[in-house]
Amino acid sequence: MPREFKVLIAGGGMAGLILGQLLELAGIEYMIFEKAPRPTTLGSAMGFGPNIMPLFEQLGMLEDIAKISKLVDHTLVLDEDLNVVADIDGKAMRKKLGYGHYIFSRPDMFQLLLSRVPAHKVFFSKKILTVEEEIDKVTLKFSDNSQISGDICVGADGGYSAVRQSLYRSLKARGILPRKDMEDLTFGFYNLLGTTNPMDPAKYPALAAPDCKIELMQRTTTKHALHTFTVPGNRFCWNVTNHVQTDEGANCTVFRNSEWGNETAQSMCNEVRDFKAPFGGTMADYIDATPKEAISIVMLEEKLFKTWYGSRTVLVGDACHKMLPSAGQGAINAIQDAVVLANNLYDLPDRPTLKNISFCFNLYRSERYPMAKMAFQLSQQQSKLISGQSLTDRMKRKMAFSYIPQFVQNKAMEKPNAYRPQVNFLPMVPDRGTYKVLQRRLSKRYQEEMGVSKAV
Ligand SMILES: Cc1cc2nc3c(=O)[nH]c(=O)nc-3n(C[C@H](O)[C@H](O)[C@H](O)COP(=O)(O)OP(=O)(O)OC[C@H]3O[C@@H](n4cnc5c(N)ncnc54)[C@H](O)[C@@H]3O)c2cc1C
C-alpha cells in the first residue's frame, strides 16, 4: 500500500541506494540527492559476507552479485620480500556460516545498486549545504540555491555528512549534543587506491583463478601496507595504506577532512611506484594500468557517533559510524542500517507526526547502535593487525600470525555473523549454515496486511 509521507535521502552511496531500493518496495515516496555529477568510478575492493548476503538473497540479487565478484578461498600475508607470513583460510568457515565472502570493486557494486533504483528518483549534482527543521516538515538546501521539503531527511552522505553537521549544530545550540559528538573523527591511516583495467593473465596467473586471490604485504622499511585483490574481468583492485602516527596526523592538514577524491593522489603514486608489489612487478604496473581519474586518495578516519537522530532527521552509514576498512564492515553496516531503518519506516503510522517519527528512529537506533559498536571495535582491531606500524602493532601481528591457531582467529570473526537483518515486510529467506543466527521479527503491518503471524 502506498504511504502518505515523503523521505528525502541525502547521498547516493551504498546506504542511500539500498535504502532507495527498499523504500521503493515498501511503497514509500522518496528522492535521492547525490552531490557527484555522475555515477562514480572511484574505489577499490569491498566485500560482503554472511551478515549481509541473506538480504541480497531476499532481494533476488545473488546472481548479479556473483557476476561482479569472486569468492575468497585464501588470503596470503607477505613480508616485503614476498615470503608468505600467513595463509588465512577463507573457505573453512563457509559451510558453518552458510555464505562465502564476496569481493568486488566498489564501482561495479555502485552500478548494480544504482540499476535497482528508478533513474528518475536519483538526482545527481545536488550538493546539500544545510537541513532546516520545522514542526511539520524538513527542508534540504542545495548549493545551486534550490531547496526541497519532505517529512523525513535521511543523512546517508558519508563520513563528512553535511546532514550530521546541520543536525549537530541545532542540537548543540539547544545544549543537548553530547560532548563526545563535538570531537573530530580520529585519523590513523591514509589510503591510495584504484581498480585497474584488464591486465594480462599470462603475466599474472592469479587473474585466471576462479577464486579471489588476496595478497597483503607489510613493508618494514617504510610504514606502508600494500593490498591487492583479483576481481572478475582480469582486473586487480589495489590499495596502499600508510599508517600515520598521532602527532603526524594532527599536523596533516593537507588531507585532514578531505573526501574520497583523486586530487592529491598523483604525488603519492610517485612515492610508491618503485615498491615491490604483491603478485610480482612493482606498484607502477598497477598504477599505470589504472585510469588516472579512477585513482583516489582518502583519509581513513574513524568515529562512532552517539547521536543518530533528532526531530525529522536520521543518520545512516558512515554519517553515524565511520569505521576503518580492514574488517570489511563499513559498507555492510551502512546497508544493515538501511534495512533496519526501512523496516521501522514501513511500520510508521500514516501520520508522520514528530512523536511517531521519533518513536521509529529510536527503535532503529536501539537495534543498530550495539551492532555498529561491535563492528567498529572489530574494524579497529583488524586494521591495526593488518596495517598498523607501531612497534606494538608489529609485535601483535607477529603473535597473531605465528602463534594463534587459525580456529581461534576464525572464532573472533564469527561473532558479527550472528546478526543478519532482513527486510521484515518481504518473505524472509531461511538461515543458511549451522551457525546460530539471531531471531528476526516480521513487521506488524506486514503481518496484518498479509494475514501472517509467525516470527521468523
Ligand atoms: C567515491 C567513493 C569511493 C569509495 N571507495 C571505497 C573503497 O574502495 N573501499 C572501501 O572500503 N570503502 C570505500 N568507500 C567508502 C564506502 O563506500 C563507505 O565506507 C561505505 O560504503 C558506507 O556507505 P555510505 O553510504 O554510508 O557512504 P558512502 O558510500 O561514502 O556514500 C556517501 C555518498 O554521499 C555523497 N555526499 C557526500 N556529501 C554530500 C552532500 N553534501 N550532498 C549530497 N551528497 C553528498 C557522496 O558523494 C557519496 O556518494 C568509498 C566511498 C566513496 C564515496
UniProtKB/TrEMBL annotation:
Alphabetized, the UniProt keywords read: FAD, Flavoprotein, Membrane, Oxidoreductase, Transmembrane, Transmembrane helix
Does the UniProt entry include the keyword Membrane?
A: yes
The source's superkingdom equals: Eukaryota
GO terms (molecular function) for this protein are:
FAD binding; monooxygenase activity
Q: Gene3D superfamilies of this UniProt entry?
A: FAD/NAD(P)-binding domain
Q: Which residues form the FAD-binding domain?
A: 5-172, 291-345
Q: Which residues cross the membrane?
A: 7-33
Mind telling me which SUPFAM superfamilies this protein's record contains? FAD/NAD(P)-binding domain
State if rRNA processing is listed as a keyword. Answer: no
**Which InterPro entries did the record assign?**
FAD-bd (IPR002938), FAD/NAD-bd_sf (IPR036188), FAD_mOase_fung (IPR050562)
Similarity-based family: Belongs to the paxM FAD-dependent monooxygenase family.
User: What's this protein's name?
Assistant: FAD-binding domain-containing protein
* Species of provenance: Actinomortierella ambigua
